[in-house]
TrEMBL record:
<dbReference type="InterPro" id="IPR003663">
    <property type="entry name" value="Sugar/inositol_transpt"/>
</dbReference>
<feature type="transmembrane region" description="Helical">
    <location>
        <begin position="271"/>
        <end position="292"/>
    </location>
</feature>
<feature type="transmembrane region" description="Helical">
    <location>
        <begin position="55"/>
        <end position="77"/>
    </location>
</feature>
<feature type="domain" description="Major facilitator superfamily (MFS) profile">
    <location>
        <begin position="24"/>
        <end position="464"/>
    </location>
</feature>
<dbReference type="InterPro" id="IPR020846">
    <property type="entry name" value="MFS_dom"/>
</dbReference>
<keyword id="KW-1133">Transmembrane helix</keyword>
<dbReference type="GO" id="GO:0015144">
    <property type="term" value="F:carbohydrate transmembrane transporter activity"/>
</dbReference>
<comment type="similarity">
    <text>Belongs to the major facilitator superfamily. Sugar transporter (TC 2.A.1.1) family.</text>
</comment>
<dbReference type="InterPro" id="IPR045262">
    <property type="entry name" value="STP/PLT_plant"/>
</dbReference>
<dbReference type="GO" id="GO:0015293">
    <property type="term" value="F:symporter activity"/>
</dbReference>
<feature type="transmembrane region" description="Helical">
    <location>
        <begin position="20"/>
        <end position="49"/>
    </location>
</feature>
<feature type="transmembrane region" description="Helical">
    <location>
        <begin position="89"/>
        <end position="107"/>
    </location>
</feature>
<keyword id="KW-0813">Transport</keyword>
<dbReference type="InterPro" id="IPR005828">
    <property type="entry name" value="MFS_sugar_transport-like"/>
</dbReference>
<keyword id="KW-0769">Symport</keyword>
<protein>
    <recommendedName>
        <fullName>Major facilitator superfamily (MFS) profile domain-containing protein</fullName>
    </recommendedName>
</protein>
<feature type="transmembrane region" description="Helical">
    <location>
        <begin position="113"/>
        <end position="135"/>
    </location>
</feature>
Length: 494
């Protein structure tokens, strides 16, 4: 049973969305534009880089995958960094690092310099992917947390769409110039994010861990609808912090890795399985790789005009943007599990259709138009279902289930798995597809998504409507955990 204070806190949160909390969430989530823009713009820029620098397919995979693999460094470091210097300054660090990488890529005179720029940019992306959802989760009212914490995915999708439009707009420039401008323009959102941080307060939960209760209270009053709500949130956060070794100015995340990896308790173990699992399946779905190499896939399907290839990308980007908004709006109404299961099942079916269409085109000499259209629709359906489920919910779930002392570094660990799988898939997608064909690759990804559906159904409890401080109870006891899962699938009787 919830206390009267928590109930009144929930009731206050159900009302209108606090505008200041929304502004903070938007500014923090803007860091995710950096990854989205790179994914979108690189899918087209790589065609021109390949022609201009005369690089091989393996070098293309190294170029594309380097950013994802190196973002693993930023993701692993981000947890400790944000516990030490705070969430706000970690956002500044993420934007600054990516800015240096973007400038280096735009000015790169050769392939090795271009890869070096992507290494630096990748570290910045790793920082941004962890800190955006964690900061947003910590500042959001409970009943609006799903909406606000899904904003990083919205900005990733917006970045992808902007990247596609940039490809389309600059494709007519000379080959030695267009890709440099495409990659160099990534500096613009990085600068915007850096300035945006000026308007953001520090996370109230981090402030509590540093013993700065008055400052935390001032922030909570700004991001809550009433003073009473702010005070009940502060009491709840302080109570949780007092039960952990975090309510000291000398605490900067010490001992967390040992607790996470050496001897985790049963609830922490279940949290790790859930967070790492959802991040694994997010990237094992092949979403990043499909977006990066979509032009290559459609080139093999018979579309050779770069304008047409980039046009297909723009359509795909618009589909992603539309559906991520649908998910964000309904996430707090329907919950995480229903949308996650719907999205993953839809992805599996879309990949099967895409695999069948690709196989038909592989064995067809005349490449019939209807088959190409089916493949385009299947790709759009795939990315749309991703945007309904795995895309936004991975960030929401990863950032909300860990207790305060473990949140930054636990989320960092889960997102490091995300980045590692994304990097491996991006660097092997073309090579594996050459061995088993694009159609075969899509069938493999469909099989992975079926396994993902089973994993989510069995191991991810619903977190809708729970405060961050109540998450430990949700993962606490094996009996309670099992009964909660059964309640999700059994209609309740009165």
């Amino acid at each position: 049973m919830e206390s009267p204070e928590i109930q009144s806190h929930h009731q206050a949160s159900v009302g209108h969305l606090n505008k200041y909390a929304l502004l903070c969430a938007l500014l923090a989530s803007m860091t995710s534009v950096l990854l989205g823009y790179d994914i979108g713009v690189m899918s087209g820029a790589v065609l021109f880089i390949r022609e201009n620098l005369k690089i091989t397919s393996i070098q293309v995979e190294i170029l594309v995958g380097t950013l994802n693999v190196c973002s693993l460094i930023g993701s692993l470091a981000s947890g400790k960094t944000s516990d030490y210097i705070g969430r706000r300054y970690t956002i500044v660090l993420a934007a600054s690092t990516f800015l240096i990488g973007a400038i280096a890529m735009g000015l790169a005179p050769s392939f090795p310099y271009l890869v070096a720029g992507r290494v630096v940019a990748g570290i910045g992306v790793g920082y941004s992917l962890m800190i955006s959802p964690v900061y947003t989760a910590e500042i959001s009212p409970t009943m609006k947390r799903g909406l606000l914490t899904s904003l990083p995915e919205f900005f990733i999708v917006m970045g992808i769409l902007i990247g596609y439009i940039t490809n389309y707009a600059l494709s007519g420039l000379p080959n030695n110039l267009n890709w440099r401008i495409m990659l160099g323009l990534a500096a613009v959102p990085a600068i915007a994010v850096g300035f945006g941080v000026i308007a953001m307060p520090e996370s109230p939960r981090w402030l509590v861990t540093q013993g700065k209760l008055e400052e935390a209270k001032r922030v909570l009053i700004k991001v809550s609808n009433t003073t009473q709500e702010a005070e009940s949130r502060l009491a709840e956060i302080t109570k949780a912090a007092n039960s952990e070794p975090t309510n000291s100015k000398n605490w900067h995340g010490q001992g967390v890795w040992k607790e996470l990896l050496w001897k985790p308790s049963k609830p922490v173990k279940r949290m790790l399985i859930a967070a790492i699992g959802i991040n694994f399946f997010m990237q094992a779905s092949g979403n990043d790789a499909v977006i990066y190499y979509c032009p290559e896939v459609f080139k093999s399907a018979g579309i050779h005009s770069k304008k047409q290839l980039f046009g297909v990308n723009v359509i795909m980007g618009m589909a992603k943007t539309s559906f991520v908004l649908v998910s964000a709006v309904y996430l707090d109404k329907f919950g995480r599990r229903p949308l996650l299961l719907l999205g993953t099942i839809g992805m599996a079916l879309s990949l099967v259709v895409l695999g069948l269409g690709s196989k038909f085109l592989e064995h067809s000499d005349n490449k019939p138009l209807w088959t190409i259209v089916v493949c385009i629709v299947a790709v759009c359906a795939f990315v749309s279902f991703f945007s309904i489920g795995l895309g936004p919910i991975t960030w929401v779930y990863s950032s909300e289930i860990f207790p305060l002392r473990l949140r930054a570094q636990g989320t960092a660990l889960a997102i490091s798995v995300n980045r590692l799988v994304s990097g491996v898939l991006s660097m092997t997608f073309l090579s594996i597809s050459e061995k088993i064909s694009f159609g075969g690759m899509f069938f493999v990804l469909a099989g992975i998504m079926v396994v993902g559906v089973v994993f989510f159904y069995l191991l991810l409890p619903e977190t809708k409507g729970k405060t961050l401080e109540e998450m430990v109870e949700l993962f606490e006891d094996k009996t309670d955990y099992t009964s909660q899962m059964e309640m999700r699938v059994r209609p309740q009787t009165t």
